[in-house]
Input
Amino acid sequence: MQTIYLLSGLLCDSTVWETQVPALRKLGYDAHPMSFQGFDSIGGMAAHLLEQAPERFSLAGHSMGGRVALEAYRQAPQRIERLALLDTGFEQGLCVAVIVVAFVEDAECAFGATTDAMLGDDYQLYMANNGVDALKYLDRYQPCLMFLDLKMPQMNGLELLKNVAARNLSTVIVVVTALPQEQYRELANQYGVYRYLQKPLDVNEVENIAAVVLH
Output
């Protein structure tokens, strides 16, 4: 029996494969859906997959799962029998738009300048210092990733989250706050916030998030 791993996309779990798993098993495949909650790098996800898998197996990756599949092939090409990429931007540069929304007068952290220094050379970065301008960018560019400071004039971060949810965009949202993350767990459930970062920003955290979401 051939083994195949079905790799889920960002913010997805095994339910995305609920139709394919029984169909593949009827065809004689040993099908295993896999998701990657709790991992913060594509390399770590691929390494986890390789630890779980038998010596030889096939892969099908959806969205971010496709990038994990390619990384697994890079790490151990001799173990991969077949590889399928489904609805995934696997080429560098296909998914590059990032919005950084930060109140420029926020004295706790030079958030916008810090993020620009970390990511500006690698990604197409749009800066906004209030929620109204951010919505214009969202509608125009439909970015893959948005770093959002909750403290802003005109339209605060919570109001912006509601507007993003109403637009049904696929933008991945990372909230930046000086407050404890526990206070915002309900927001994660309501609006699908991907991560919370504490001020001051950690360079490695920002770069790892960008690597997972955009590559």
